[in-house]
């Protein structure tokens, strides 16, 4: 499929989903929202892709809904409202239940709805010059879904400060690292994509079936109490018993070779 607002690439077993509206700081217009659903679905269904990296072209990672479109075209705001009322967040990997590992590689500014892609990623890397801000309340919108997601990753007060201060303050990559929003700050910034590819390549060496089961179990734990989460995790564990990868993994280790994982 060809895309107008995204670049979708594959490098080995790593799929890349790249926001590509640099002249609009990669803001999401209606076209991008539709293409994101298609791109996540395409990469999620591709058996060659074991890990997905999400980043942006130009000086921004993602800046959320295209406010100019919302304000001027007479359609954007109504469509955005309808998608939320119908609980259709199909532009996100979380809503689409993508069970492949997702790495967000944040270059430049990440603002507003762009924080969806940070909250939903399994691992977040940030360039040393990346910044984070949530301007929802500064444009008359409530800050909710993205920030609720971030509360699973970082202290509540830090999330509340970002949500309530709005566009009048930006969080640095270094501060985001201190708070647990990101797991690595890449310096110099020009190495961000290289670092993301290196990390994705490491993850992609593992069993795709085990990666998917692990992701489902760990994210699922955030939705449940401790006992229920452990029971669900145990079901994912036993669900892999008898899978060819459980035989191939130890055999490859004993024979000192790379495993040949089964592609479902």
From TrEMBL:
It comes from Thermomonospora echinospora. This is Enoyl-CoA hydratase/carnithine racemase. One of its GO terms (molecular function) is catalytic activity. Belongs to the enoyl-CoA hydratase/isomerase family. Residues 240-264 are annotated as: Disordered. Residues 254-264 have a biased composition (Basic and acidic residues). It comes from the Bacteria. It holds the Pfam family ECH_1. Coiled coil: none annotated.
């Amino acid at each position: 499929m060809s895309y107008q607002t995204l670049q979708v690439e594959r490098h080995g077993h790593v799929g890349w989903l790249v926001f590509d509206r640099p002249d609009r700081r990669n803001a999401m217009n209606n076209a991008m929202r539709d293409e994101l659903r298609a791109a996540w679905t395409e990469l999620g269904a591709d058996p060659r892709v074991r890990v997905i990296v999400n980043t942006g072209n130009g000086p921004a990672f993602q800046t959320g809904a295209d406010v100019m479109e919302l304000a001027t075209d007479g359609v954007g705001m109504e469509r955005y409202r309808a998608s939320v009322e119908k609980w259709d967040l199909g532009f996100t990997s979380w809503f689409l239940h993508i069970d492949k590992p997702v790495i967000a590689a944040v270059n430049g500014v990440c603002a507003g709805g762009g924080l969806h892609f940070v909250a939903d990623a399994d691992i977040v890397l940030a360039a040393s010059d990346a910044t984070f801000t949530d301007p929802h309340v500064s444009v008359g919108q409530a800050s909710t879904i993205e920030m609720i997601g971030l509360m699973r990753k970082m202290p509540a007060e830090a999330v509340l400060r970002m949500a309530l201060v709005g566009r009048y303050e930006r969080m640095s990559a270094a501060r985001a690292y201190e708070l647990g929003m990101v797991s690595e700050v890449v310096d110099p910034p020009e190495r961000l994509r290289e670092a993301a590819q290196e990390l994705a390549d490491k993850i992609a060496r593992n069993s795709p079936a085990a990666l998917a089961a692990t992701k489902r179990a760990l994210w699922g734990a955030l939705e449940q109490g401790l006992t229920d989460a452990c029971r669900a995790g145990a079901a994912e564990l036993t669900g892999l018993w008898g899978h060819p990868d459980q035989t191939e993994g130890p055999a490859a280790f004993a024979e000192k070779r790379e495993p040949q994982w089964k592609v479902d």
